[in-house]
Amino acid sequence: MVQIMEKTGKELVVEATLDNLDQVLGFVESEAKQAGCPEKTVGQIAVAIEELYVNIASYAYAPSTGNCSVWLWGDVQNDSGSLRIELKDNGKKFNPLMHKPPDITLSADERPIGGLGIFMAEKLMDKLSYSYENGQNILSVEKQWRI
Amino acid sequence: MEMTVNQNGSQLTMELSGRLDTNAAPAMMTKLEEVLVDGVSQFVLDMANCSYVASSGLRAVLNAQKKMNSLQGTMIVKNVVGDVMEVFDMTGFADILTFE
Fold first, then answer.
1. CA A71, chain centre distance (Å)
2. Between 20 and 30 A from A140 (CA), which of A27, A83, B45, B92?
3. CA A99 vs CA A117, A118, A122, B27: distances in Å
4. Antiparallel, parallel or unpaired: β B2-8 and A136-146
5. How many domains does chain B fold into?
6. Is B92 within 8 Å of A106 when comparing Cβ atoms?
7. Which residue blocks in chain A are alpha helix, DSSP H?
C-alpha cells in the first residue's frame, strides 16, 4: 500500500519477506525516476536498497514475520537531485552498519561466502545511517546526483 | 533472470539475461552445481545481458570460480557491462575473476 504524505514523502508498507523484494524495488525505482534520477543512479540505489531490505527480510523478525515500511523523499534543485530513503521495521534491535568490513583482497578460495551486501550499499550510496527509536530500527539512505 | 547453458566438449558457457538479484541467485547456484562437474575444463560466463548484480549474485559467481578452481579448470567472465564492472571493482572481484 502506497501512501502520499504531506506533498514530499511517500510510504510503502510491505510484509518483510523476500517475495516482496520486487515490490519494494519497483516502488523505489519508479519514485527515483520520477525525481529525475539518472538510470545509472537508479540501478545503484536499487542494489543498495536490495541489500538492506534483504537483511531485514532475512533477520529482523526471524523465525516470525512482520512489516517493513519504506519511506522516500525526493528533492530536485536546478542542477542536482537527491533522494532519502528510510527502511523501518519493528523487529529485533540490530544495527547492520556495525559490521566488520570484508577483506576484499582475498583470493577466490580464501573468500568467505557473504558479508558484502552492507559494504556494497555503503559504497554505492552517499550516506547510510542507523537509529533505534520507539522500538523501531530505522535505516536511512541518501544519494545525490547531478543533472 | 534467464540462464542459457551450452556445452561444447569440455567448454561450458552460461549466458545470463536479466537481474542477478537475491531471488535469482539460488537458481543460478543450483544450476552451477548441476553443470560444473568433472570433465568441464573451461567455464565461460557471458554477462552481456545482465546489468544488475547484488551481493547474492556475487556469491553465485564466486561459487563458480571456486568450483572451477577445485576442478583445476579455468573460468572466464565476458561481456561485462559498465555498471556491473563497477560492482566487481568495488568488491575486489575484479582481481579474482578473469575477464575477456
1. 10
2. B92
3. 11, 8, 11, 28
4. unpaired
5. 1
6. yes
7. 21-34, 39-55, 117-124
Q: How far apart are CA B17 and CA B94, in angstroms?
A: 20
- Provide the residue type at A49 as one letter: I
Q: Which domain holds residue A106?
A: 2-146
Cell numbers describing residue B47: 554477462
- CB half-sphere exposure, A60, CA atoms < 13 A: 27
Find chain B residues with C-beta within 8 A of A26's C-beta. none
Give the CATH number for residue A124: 3.30.565.10
- Residue-wise pLDDT for B39-81, tens only, equals 999 999 999 999 999 999 999 999 999 999 999 999 999 999 9
The total of structural domains in chain A comes to 1
**Per-residue model confidence as pLDDT tens digits over A102-121:** 898 999 888 876 679 999 99
Chain A residues with CB under 8 Å of B87 CB are 47, 120
What residues make up the domain containing B27? Answer: 2-96
Contact A43 B52 (CB under 8 A): yes
Q: Helix, strand, or coil here: A5?
A: strand
Q: Do B23 and A43 touch (CB under 8 A)?
A: no
Backbone angles phi, psi at A138, to 5 degrees: -125, 115
The ipTM, to two decimals, is 0.92
- Rounded CA separation A124/B53 (Å): 13
User: Which grid cell sits at A71?
Assistant: 519511506
Instruction: Quick: pLDDT tens for A90-99.
Output: 999 999 998 7
